[in-house]
Amino acid sequence: MPDRLHEAFVLRAHGLGPLPFRGKEPAFRKGQIQHYRHRRLSDTELRKLFADRSCNIGVFTGDGHVCLDVDGDEGRQSMKGLQMPPTPMVETGDGFHAHFRTTEPLRTRIRPLPGIDILGESWQVLMPTSIHPDRSTYRFIPQLTLTDVDFADVPAWIRDLCQTPDLAHKTVAQERSPKPQKNQDTEDGRARVLLDTCTTPNPLTPKEVRAFFASDAANRAVADFLGLPELGSTFLCIWHPEAEPSMSLYADPHTGAWKVHDWHGRGEHEHYALADIFASRMLGHEVRLVGKPTLTVWWLRALLASKYLEPAEVPMKALPLDARPSIRTVYDGFILLLQAKWRYDPGKPTQFTVRFAMAWCGISSSETVQKAVWWLVRHGYIRQVKREKGSWTYLPGEE
Questions:
Q1: Cα torsion for 40, 43, 46, 47, to the nearest 10°?
Q2: CB-CB contact of 57 with 20 (8 Å)
Q3: pTM score over 0.90
């Protein structure tokens, strides 16, 4: 039987944060894992965590550690032509993990390419000699163990992929360019693609959308996605490391919505909706959502991310492979916005102001957003429809 405690000491010696797993899930109660993240564990803590030698072993990602998870033939196909420097690598059930170091935080991105996950902040991954569900064993690839090579810096292409929303939220329509129509050529020589808006089967009513805020099932799904504990539980602060719990999860007695109470009591920033916590997690900094429309669309985005809701179908043509990362980020953000809003307002054009797009897409420069939107309009990926309340509304495709 593997000596899990010894393996944990070895991983810690290489600057990694070991933790026990049950199968492929961390062996913690809901919310407990936050107590061990972002800090070096003591010998006593490791002995306690790995007292059960039958458990699997893994490590936290984030805090300078990033893992590229390549899964199956689909993932290997996506890797063709991409740079892979020598770095510790692990054989998995039907793929491999590559471990890197980074000097700046990188958010976790699930399926930015087919068969590819980038595991960064607030995630964890199995390590050798854990047992995969298919009964195979996680093993370091020869000559690429922790003692053979140092952690390589994260390649630039991984950083670029971390700027795009998850492929899991994209539709099949946007991954495959529709066939070009004849006799409609653009100025750059490529065929135009005219896309019709579509309706979503069984769209939600406004009453059903409002009901999600008070739905225990919807709130539980998002709370689980955020790694929060059971309703009524206390837990460590999500904004900064600490030793004692200073937050709690409760149901608002007036609205039924689940909220997080910050006991530090910083004025208006004492109570947070789950949508606030979700937006903060997505953008990498504390966010306070203001206004009912903004809160609603972020809440729907959280329900999509937690798989509680299926995204609306949005017909979009695929960007060229050489599109700049900023353009891809804004375009994917626009698609994600329609996937949320078209659940209750199918086919309707939406505003996509620079200020909103900056927050929604996680871009700090207004000029970057303006240039990306203009490029998308000029090349026919989105189209302006009409002005409402001083701002343009947009739909997919060209007029």
A1: -170
A2: yes
A3: no
Ordered DSSP codes for 93-118: SSEEEEEEE-SS----EEEEETTEEE
Helices 216-225, 292-305: axis angle to 10 degrees equals 70
- Structure-block tokens of residue 326: 């900023």
CB < 8 Å & 24+ apart, contacts of 29-36: 29/229, 30/224, 30/227, 30/228, 30/229, 30/230, 30/233, 31/227, 31/228, 31/229, 31/230, 31/233, 31/235, 32/229, 33/124, 33/227, 34/227, 34/235, 34/236, 34/238, 35/236, 36/60
At CA 341, angle to CA 340 and CA 342, rounded to 5? 95
Q: Six-digit token pair at 344? A: 């209750």
Strand extents, DSSP E, 65-154: 65-71, 89-91, 95-101, 109-113, 116-119, 123-126, 139-140, 152-153
Q: Cis omega before residue 44 (within 30°)?
A: no
25 token code pair: 């899930």
State how far the alpha carbon of 50 is from the alpha carbons of 13, 45, 130, 364, in Å.
Answer: 16, 9, 13, 43
Separate counts of helices (H) and strands (E) for the chain: 12, 18
Asked if 218 and 303 touch (Cβ cutoff 8 Å), the reply is yes
How many CB atoms are located within 10 Å of the residue 187 CB?
7
What DSSP character marks residue 204? P
pLDDT of residue 370 exceeding 50, the answer is yes
Give the pLDDT confidence of 301-320 residue by residue, as tens digits.
999 888 888 888 888 888 88
Helix, strand and coil percent figures for the chain, each rounded to 5 = 30, 20, 45
Q: Which residues pair with residue 350 across a beta bridge?
A: 394
pLDDT of 252-311, one tens digit each?
A: 998 999 999 988 765 556 889 999 998 887 777 788 888 878 889 999 999 988 888 888
Q: With b meaning 16 or more CB within 10 Å and e meaning fewer, what string describes 283-300?
A: beeebebeeeeebbbbbb
Distance in angstroms (rounded) separating the CA atoms of residues 337 and 125: 30
Rounded CA gap, 11 and 227, in Å?
24
The pLDDT of residue 195 is above 80 = no
